[in-house]
Amino acid sequence: MEPEIVRPEQVAGERTGRIRQRLIDAPQEICVERARYFTQAMAEHWGKHPLTRMSLALERVLNKMSVIIRDDEIIVGCRTGKLKGAPLFPENKTRWLAGDVENFDRRVVQRALITEAEKQEILNDVLPFWTGRTVEERYEELLPHAIAEDVDKYVFTFMLEITYGIGHFTMNHQRVLASGLSGIIDEARKKPAALSSAESSGDTGLFYEAVIRSLQAAIQFARRYSDLALKMARETNDPGRKKELETIAAVCRRVPEYPAETFHEAVQSLYFIHLIAQIESGGNSVSLGRIDQILYPCYIKDRKEGRTDPAMAKELISLLFLKTGEIWNVLEEAYIPGGEGTEGKTTQNVAVGGLDQNGADATNELSYLTLDAYASIRTVQPNFSVRLSSRSPDFFFMKVIEYAKDGVLLHFLNDDAIIPSLIRAGHTEEDARDYGVVGCLEPNAQGKTFGSTFAAQFNGMKCLEFALSNGVDNIFGYTSGLETGAPSNFASFDDVWNAYDCQINHFVNQLTGGMACLDRAIAELVPSPFASAMIDGPMEKGIDLTRGGAIYNSTGVQLMGFSNIADSLYAVKRTVFDEKRFSLSDLSQWLSDDWTDAEDKQAYLKNKIEKYGNDVDAVDEMAQKVAGHFCDVLEKHRNFRGGAYWPGVFSVGFHISMGAFTGATPDGRCAGETLGNGITPSNGLAVAGPTAIMNSVTKLPLQRIYNGMNLNMRFHGRKTRSRDLVCLIKTYFENGGFQVQFNMVDSETLRDAQKNPEAHKDLIVRISGYSGIFISLSDIAQDEIIRRTEYEM
Amino acid sequence: MASGNPKQEAAGLVFSIQHFCLQDGPGIRSLVFFKGCPLRCVWCQNPESWKPIPELGFKKHLCTNCRTCISVCPEGAIVSPGQIRSEKCRQCFACTDACPSGALIRFGKPLSVKEIREELMPEYPFYQNSGGGVTFSGGEPTLYPEFAAHLAGSLKRDGIHLAIETCGLFHADPDTLSASGTITKKDTAQTAHPETAGRLLTLADLVLFDIKLFHPEAHRQFCGTDNRMILDNLAMLARRYHQKGGPLIWPRMPVIPGITDTPENLEGWGSLLAELRLNRLTLVPFHHLGEAKREWLQLEPGPCIHTLTGESMEKTLRVLTKIGISCFAPGEEDWPEYISS
Ligand code: SF4
Ligand code: SF4
Q1: Contact in structure between A565 and A464 (CB atoms under 8 Å)
Q2: Helix crossing, B310-323 with B263-275: angle to 10°?
Q3: Measuring from atom 2 of ligand 2, which residue has the nearest CA?
Q4: Is the pLDDT of residue A113 over 80?
Q5: Does the beta-carbon distance from A723 to B331 stay under 8 Å?
Q6: Who contacts A780 (Cβ-Cβ below 8 Å, separation ≥6)?
Q7: Which among A72, A548, A555, B155 could bridge A639 via Cys, Cβ 3.0 to 4.6 Å?
Q8: How far apart are CA B332 and CA B325, in angstroms?
Q9: Sign of the Cα pseudo-torsion (A699, A705, A706, A712, in order)
Q10: How far is it, in rounded angstroms, from Cα A686 to Cα A668?
Q11: How many CB atoms lie within 10 A of CB A25?
Q12: Dihedral sign (CA A400, A404, A409, A412)
């Protein structure tokens, strides 16, 4: 039996289709509401403990902000007063706002509408209060001078975390569905009784108090929706809509306060929690988790009691997904050219399929329905992950492949490789099996982890640049790295490697030092009592998430330029030391001159030296060494919350932005060109096809790359037999592959989209693991996507 | 192994090995392209496969005029970039190794069985999971009967499904074909008319048999030789197949507008195939991809061939279907289950 697939055209006339179109057509806007109420409350309560004032500020925002129920909606809850509104989080960083406010509605990428009155309100009422009080300023105060010097060298960045906070977690939704927030409040009330009087009047006591206040505010927020729905029900003349509004009113009266009794209640409860966590703080990638598992008990109950059917369930899930599409964060203009999509990457992940805690296949009816629901809307959010294992049903495999071929953006994750890797990283077996996926593709224990998975991006290629230039930055021409010796004195490849090792170690030290200051500033100023009650650990320990309350506390650092480092080191080893074709000082000079008058040398290095991604052992061994080394270096460090640093090799758009500040490289790349994307081989250099790429990848020490990796492949969807794609993935997974995503769009479509953006408003492509609207990408990012090796069949 | 046995050709001349091919047999496959072909079809899309010797190619558009090739040539055979005096060239390929841009390229490299097998082995899991395998293509694999048979034997011992794509022009003795693979005559690799290909063909699981022009004269006109031997071989292989003594025979026809898709040609082949009870046919649509390659090899441009239209393809399908032949696009065949090893 061929799996059936669903397309947006099929729901065009329906409720989901109408809401989808409204969402696609809505302009992006800035909304001042959150910043307004948050700042007002903070100004009143600044003298209080940070936990107390954070919960008071959240309470104020939830009580005051607009509540809106739009036409056709069944699942409700808004993050701002505008359909696609970006709230502001001035408590984290304000300086950029002062500069960008005037420009929001004028800039080219990530343009966002804003009224004149809102501009004035931000400038006059919001920003002045925050001067000297933001996380950014506290972080700068904490940052030792010796680290501060290295922060602006394009080697590493924590830009996202400075602007919006940590984010990047899944929550324990099952607990809310089973006991309601009232159950958690009861728990929080009981805790202080067991504490000593010093504890209960100290931080621990204040923590529980803040949790209770935040959860009560959340219940109150849902009641405002219930009240609004009732009012609208009274006012409407449409009997059908009246009934729907009454149901909404009843549902929002019950959840999230009480356990969810129906599937509708479960979906609404889950969305409220998901939404409020993203009103409390602005961190990206707050993720839904394994919703086919989370919602399953309520679904089965409803089915048994005849309250729902697959079509109704699918609609509710589609509506939930459409809600996630309203959530976006506006970025500082200076950071956007990093391949950023207009939509602001609140990469809200959702995962289906995979094993259960006992190791049995957990794929269920909702896994299929959830896939269909997503395929029927195909919007930028959520970011969709499919967990697969050797036990996944064949039919499920075929279904996801049919969708991938049809252009639905799916991430395939291999349980059989990821679970052992998470165990190795310190998870219990049950927790490893029950991993959720955060953000782009980062796996960790669902509802138990505060893993800051996209904390820092680290440009390892820049470190190699310094190693081959005695510390000189080849873009700017002055010394930025360590002086690890003149290349002319390097007698063997080991000398090159040692210099590289020194540079990497130095900058990783600086990164972790800086990260500790930032995490401390966040913990001091912007704790998250609401989210702390939604993740296992803080409630038990009485410690906020930001201070290490969660059960698992890692920090992810992504290596950028992986393929370039491997290819470059291999090229140096072979041409300089093995074949003695070039001298290292000549090569170093060519790099510093960006190949001027050495174009034939550049071409030789680019075209004639084997590259990672072609299943050539000699160069793949170098890639292996580079990956293993990065893991070794990070392993030595601990983060502020007492957790480990987890290596990741995926890049979102940072391989583009960091590439722009990376000089010429011995693999034949010119200064400023983009770097390799995640563990994907460099653009156009993997010429032996997808099986060879996969074979190269599975030679790497993938098991140690706990924070995840991205392999991105493009296919001409229609020309590929589904069965063969299934076999391709299965074999890659049997060989130990972790993750793969396919882009099935053909290049003609993309070129056409460049020429006629209006006609392709809903064309979504993946950029290293997160989905973006193609036409909103920068020209560089668009060109890259087109250039990326296509495997013609 | 290969080089240790003087009776076998030490190496086969191969111009490319490609992985993840989905259109030349079932499943995920690798293609081994042998260099050398007895035919000269005017529409040929792989003219680099014609001569059974290594060749130099020159991609003018890539040349940066750096003159490295001139300075490295030990024979002084290169007059100016791309201009090579063939009488002086000893085919040492120092120039292609040194050419930084990839403008000067080498077609054809003798590879041993061991080398080819090492290149294929990492792909085995992909074949095994997909019911795929290896396809010998070309050029004409039967030009290297001993070497190809040796490679085939080694792949079969590894349990790999093997397909052979052939133009059909080879001397095959039906007795050898049915025998368990003893070779009766000494083969020579570099003649246009190879001798027995028997053992090679008994080792294959699938033979993709290319058919072009039905009328011997037309065949001579467009492909350079007459087709009697091809027709005989097709009939002989079909017979063996039906008697369960040989591999599955699956004909494929390039659809060349105005040449192979004429009603007479289609009807001729259609009736023969029906008579031979080979009622499935893959139609390979014509592309203009070979033209650039002719330029690289400094060959005369081929005749002007029109672009294939959907309409004429429809017509072709109608003619063949009427005769009872089921037609498939490459990669969309309904391979019988049993050939998946
Ligand atoms: S193959 Fe050798 S002899 Fe022939 S042109 Fe090239 S370098 Fe000269
Ligand atoms: S070495 Fe290559 S690029 Fe240079 S002149 Fe010769 S053919 Fe042209």
Answers
A1: yes
A2: 30
A3: B99
A4: yes
A5: no
A6: A337, A339, A656, A674
A7: A555
A8: 15
A9: negative
A10: 14
A11: 10
A12: positive
pTM (two decimals): 0.92
The CB density around residue A134, as the number of other CB atoms within 10 Å, is 22
- The answer to whether the beta carbons of residues A283 and A165 sit under 8 Å apart is yes
Q: Is the dihedral of CA A654, A655, A657, A663 positive or negative?
A: positive
DSSP state at residue B246 = S
Instruction: Tell me the average pLDDT across A266-279.
Output: 98
Q: Whose CA is nearest to atom 2 of ligand 1?
A: B92
Tokens of B8: 């076998």
How far apart CA B340 and CA A263 sit, in angstroms, is 46
Distances (CA, A) of B170 to A8, A338, A783, B10, B230: 55, 59, 49, 21, 8
The yes or no reply on domain B6-53+110-340 and CATH 3.20.20.70 is yes
Q: What is the CA radius of gyration of chain B?
A: 20
pLDDT of residue B192: 32
The residue count for chain B: 341
CB atoms within 10 A of CB A66: 13
Q: Where are the domains of chain B?
A: 6-53+110-340, 55-107
What average pLDDT does this structure show over A46-54? 98
Q: Distance of alpha carbon B141 from its chain centroid, rounded?
A: 6
pLDDT at position B307 is 79
The β-bridge relationship of strands A555-560 and A289-290 is unpaired
> How much distance in Å is there from the Cα of A632 to the middle of ligand 2?
43
What is the rounded distance in angstroms from the CA atom of residue B272 to the CA atom of residue A666? Answer: 60
Q: How do residues A276-325 score in pLDDT, each as one tens digit?
A: 999 999 999 999 999 999 999 999 999 999 999 999 999 999 999 999 99
- Selection from B22, B84, B183, B315 nearest residue A722 by Cα: B22
Q: Do domains B6-53+110-340 and B55-107 have the same CATH topology?
A: no
- Interchain CB distance below 8 Å, A728 and B130: yes
Q: Which residues of chain B have pLDDT under 50?
A: 1-8, 175-195, 338-341
Name the residue with the closest Cα to ligand 2, atom 6.
Answer: B69
Quote ipTM for the complex: 0.89
B138 touches A: beta carbon within 8 Å: no
| Chain A contact probe: residue of B65, B72, B130, B337 with most A CBs at under 10 A | B130
Confidence of residue A791 (pLDDT cuts 50, 70, 90): very low
Sequence-distant (≥ 6) Cβ neighbours of residue B200 within 8 angstroms: B141, B142, B145, B148, B149, B152, B164
Whether A143 shows a pLDDT value over 70: the answer reads yes
Q: Which of A692, A724, A734 has the CB atom closest to B130's CB atom?
A: A724
B128-138: pLDDT as tens digits: 999 999 999 98
Contact B147, B9 (CB under 8 A): yes
Q: What percentage of chain A has pLDDT greater than the value 70?
A: 93
Choose which CATH entry (3.30.70.20, 3.60.21.10, 3.30.70.1350, 3.40.640.10) describes domain B55-107. 3.30.70.20
Q: Which residue has the tokens 């896939």?
A: A371
What confidence tens digit (pLDDT) does each residue in B69-124 have?
999 999 999 999 999 999 999 999 999 999 999 999 999 999 999 999 999 999 99
A572-610 tens-digit pLDDT:
999 999 999 999 999 999 999 999 999 999 999 999 999
For A517-531, what is the mean pLDDT?
Answer: 98
Q: Which atom of ligand 1 is nearest to the CA of B76?
A: 8
Q: How far apart are CA A653 and CA A457, in angstroms?
A: 10
The confidence band for A756, taking pLDDT boundaries of 50, 70 and 90, is confident
Average pLDDT, integer, range A164-183:
96
pLDDT at A192 over 50: yes
Distance B69 CA to ligand 1 centre (A): 8
Dist CA A172 CA A447 (whole Å): 4
Integer Cα distance of A341 and A777 in angstroms? 5
